[in-house]
Amino acid sequence: MQLLKSLEELRGWRNQVEGTVALVPTMGNLHEGHLKLVDLAKQHADHVVVSIFVNPMQFGANEDLDSYPRTLDADCLALAERKVTAVFAPTVADVYPRGLAQQTFIEVPEISDILCGASRPGHFRGVATVVAKLFNMVQPDVAVFGEKDFQQLQVIRLMTQDLSLPVDIIGMPTERADDGLALSSRNGYLSAEQRNIAPVIYQTLQQTAATIQSGTAVEQALLEAQEHLKSKGFRMDYLELRRRDNLAQLQENDRQLVLLVAAYLGTTRLIDNLQFDR
Fold it and tell me: Which domain of life does this protein belong to (predicted)?
């Protein structure tokens, strides 16, 4: 496995490699969910590149950019065991050579301003910009993303389509702990007590989907679910039911749906989602 720490090194590698390439973009601090993305990527290309870059453009002013765990050595060991072809770990200066204030950006309209985009203004601008840059740097044939960040996945799908980028986007179902909690690097921020409570968020999504499928009014089901989460100690950001393809508000005849939730346990913001049909 090669560790590529600059755009120059990456370009040199890319010019020599033969066959198809899959990209798995990450911010590092890898867990089993990331490694399952790697396993899926290996099924779709001859070579897998994992990027590790904590992207400052997608963090807000009061978010955890400085404290976000950076574990490059451990990440590389795990990826070597998975037989990844290369790791691309650029510096901020490599990705944003003129600085963030002068950086050309990409923004996918409408979908970037709702749900997590409303709570984290500019977040999806940062995501779309860095992913587009990574696509141009690595020039992959395929890119693999987890469905836990469902809104992010849909933003990237739309950006790729809108800009006619020659990259196939593959989503992978959320990897979960045995108790149902979606795997996330931010789970490490939870105390032991909070970690025991956290699986309630997915249990509530499952119960809410079943309630809606049984005929309960959407508004009533969502209100009951929010009250239940609050009673368990969660501070709500949002819990909404949306169309699956573009996250638009529901119309009466919509059948392919997704429940999306963001809520805080203490200072840790957890997100999850559940796709279902009605």
Answer: Bacteria
